[in-house]
Fold:
Amino acid sequence: MSAANKAPRWVTLALVPAVNLMAAFFIAGLIITAIGENPFAALEVLVYGAFVFPEALGFTLYYTTNFVFTGLAVAMAFHCRLFNIGGEGQAYIGGLGVGLVCLYMGGWPFPIVLIVAIMAGALFGGAWAFIPAYLQAKRGSHVVITTIMFNFIAAALMTYIMVEILIKPGQQSPESREFDPGTWLPFVHEMLGAIGIEVARSPLNLSFLIALVCCVLVWVFIWHTRWGYEIRTVGHNESAAVYAGISPSRNIIIAMCISGALAGMVGINEIMGVQHRLILDFTGGYGFVGIAVALMGRNHPIGIVLAALLFGALYQGGSELAFEMPNITRHMVVVIQGLVILFSGALEHLFRPRIEALFIRKPDAVPAQAAE
Amino acid sequence: MTQAQSGPAAAGNLPPALALHGINKRFSTVHANKDVSLSVAKGTIHGIIGENGAGKSTLMSIVYGYYQADSGTIEVDGERVSIKEPQDALGVGIGMVHQHFMLVNTFTVLENVVLGVEGGMTLGTGMDAARKELEHLEKEYSLEVDPDAIIGDLPVGLQQRVEILKALYRGAETLVLDEPTGVLTPQEVDHLFRILHALRDQGKTIILITHKLREIMALTDNVTVMRQGEVVANVKTADTSREQLAELMVGRSVLLRVEKTPAQPTDVCLAVKGLNVIDGNGVRRVKDVDFDVRYGEIVGIAGVSGNGQSELLEALSGIRPVDTGDILFKGENLAAMDGHLSRWVREHGMGHVPEDRQHMGLVLDFHAFEDTILGYHHDPLYNRHGLLNYNAITGQCADWMQGYDVRPAVPEQKAGDFSGGNQQKIVLAREMERDPELLLVGQPTRGVDIGAIEFIHKRLIAMRDAGKAILLVSVELDEIMSLADRILVMFDGMIVGEMPQGEATEQQLGLLMAGESTNVQQGAS
Structure:
């Protein structure tokens, strides 16, 4: 079929996601009305909490950073048609790698610590993805199943390591000792402060820039290198890949390892940037939300940044909402996030065909007989 | 052509078990069934024979309710019926035995037989009645199968028996069997024939779809020959011969003769010796194949599809591992090499136009320019500083599109949005423009419009005249006969005949393709 009967790009890329988002907010509004709050007031609190008050934007972008990493991770695997559900575990293990570097490299020059920490986070996260990838590529064990299981294994492993090995002596809470301040990532308010721009304190740190750099690198890798070309070929058509001399199993492993490495970068933000020590459960579901981010962002870095920003705002604005409106609990905020995921992910095709149909120019009807 | 509408004497004046009138069916541009009419007399075995793509399966899918005819009527026992889904077909007593069995492997025979017609809310009572009925059917038609055996444990021949029982259990009076012998051993085939004869003698009507002449001659009372969607003959089997059927099946339709001079073959480019290839299921698909291809000639491999040609092409191009035997390409034994073989052969001058361009030759979601480097993406031509050089790639793609008259000549268009012929031109450009020494071509004109066919044929001839070696695999006999300088016929994984272009007749090739190799010497070399 010719290009004429396809909807314009902006409809697919902007209008459809916007309509999906509106639908999610509409249903959320109905629920908020049902529990006796004013949905417009709630929206105002949400937007104010996410963007307007002094440190709001910093918090929003701090969450965004995590979602960019996990969103890129899911997208990377998806270009090889692999559904990496294991971002959570890979981020967790990646954070362990980052934490170990920071624990034992105190006193080293910061740039070296940063580079080694990034490498360790990528290596640990990538290694955690390698096992499911290998099992998928060589043994046919479905990567969805294995990565889910590896999330649990990661959680158990981390608990063991924290409780038995890395716990700071003489305390009950399973946390490591605080890292040497020389290994901490600079906060954005510190960096801007150093050049004379005063902004409110927030957890936003250098890793936000690292996330943006990752976006560019992923974009270049997927669309502008022959390795990305091979991964996309395997993802779209495995027989064509074999025909072209491209090994599916090799590319499955490469794509998954890069995916895990990107998820592992969450550790740079959380452990090296904010917590400054290893703790349990610092991944906070970012790995799972990354799936929705990648879906909404259509597996493209620009879309992922926008979707990550949306989820960052929902996280930050949502906690403000829970704080400001007593009827809207923390769980209610999760429901709103869930609705966004539902409409932009699972129900992605609910409105798409109808909206696109509106913008498709019908070719002049040709009677069947005339075609002969 | 003898018309056999009256049916055999045994049927007397009964209305036909199944009659089709003026059935038409189109799939976008393909006219799969053109005004098809035929009549199947009660209590007979009626064969429908034709090459792959002749429209036999489409016709039977219409009868069984998988497709709806665009026009035309179906009559069962003289009454017009409307068949919208398989349930309707079963309702009027038509049962289908599929080429690929529709059985649940982990269920027992009995469970499979009652599947979908269990009857009642609970299984218990229904099952006892079903078991009785099944045992009755087995006895009546000597179709013994243990009702409690697990399907997956049964050999293929018995699984097929279960398929037949399924249809009978549902009250089928007319059984349609689609290529029933394709998966059977010769002994199982003999057994099946006996069963079918027994069924006919008990009054059932059987429609047998096949492309094998032997089965038609051995089994049927009447035969309908189809070619290119049309019925070309309805004859009594007793009044015809294999030769006549082969001729009808292959047809004397317009030969797209390509103008060419006699080949000037020189050195051997590709030599295949004692090649055996085993597919993923452990079945030997290529059996002791020997042949060679010289520079400056087109060697054509004719055969009904599914007789090992695909596996042969895949083995030669390094996609599929070789079991035993040698493949000597420019003196190097490919069979002895391992790892990245398909990349190696490309880099050493072997082009490969795969049989299935949409499944293998192209990534349909890619832009056309991305597909023009498929398999060649390592070439320094397309890479600069570790990045793909899209300027060079799209520029080359645009040039090729001009040279091959691809329409529209838009490198950014998705490959899947081009028509079949234009997709094929993109693949051909990729594989031919790099000046390979050997070109493997599978079904170069399948699903391609007439204009593009001529263009593709001319290109192949030009390439041969430039002294390149070409191995052409096609199920289109016309194509093989007009293009190939030497013709090999492949049947059941073996080369069953070889002849120069001038000496081959369609009839002879048709018989060889149908496995009737008795009169022809094996391998002329």
